[in-house]
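Lab notebook: predicted structure, single chain.

Context: the supervisor wants predicted structures on file for every construct in the current expression panel, including those that have not yet been purified. This is the next one on the list. No modifications to the sequence; it matches the entry in the shared construct table.
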Amino acid sequence: MKIFPFLVLIFFVVSCNKEKIDPSESNDDSGEEMQMDDPLEEEYPKDSVDFEYPNEEEEADSLDMPDLSNFQRFLIGKGSHSSVSVVRFFTGNEMNFNAVFDESAIYDLASSNQSDINKLYGFSDCGNFHHTNSARFGWRWYQEELQIFAYCYSNGQRNMEYITSVDLGKEYQYSIKKDRGQYIFSVNNQSTTMDRGCSGNGRSYYLFPYFGGTETAPHDITIHIQEI
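Prediction complete. Output recorded below exactly as produced.
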């Protein structure tokens, strides 16, 4: 009778060993979830992404850019309107400069604001605030081309007129001339006139590159300008 409890103990141990499961064959959900928590590099390796962020030097080299050593570089940062926050006074009856746009001038706002006109360079007039009297060039990337406009305020009335389209990476000469009751805008050999709403000079100031319109720059935009 004393042997019986011993036999029962042996039977219990053998039964437990038969029920053990090899962890390598487990279908336990928690085990699969732990494997999914492993580093994602295995499933999404860094070397297999579908695109690369552009390198600024490589992007610049993709255009045959002119010598810009004597140009001033204006940067409109992503999410900004303005390139410069200083005041510089302008005197004279004429402004002449060269300008070069690179590939950063290409943008897609995915809205009707794509047709808004950005600002290139110009001046306020007759000592007035520029939303009263001013003359400057405007630009926009529209219908797959970079379009240049004459852009003015005449006694508070805003006026604009398309002049021409320019190529990226090429130098163009721009000119705004006060001529009695009008401004003469020229881009290389293309010219147009706009009404001037005041006379005389007064204390005027430069109007620097500006993005907008309504929206801010969707990415960094660089414009090179050389006064002549």
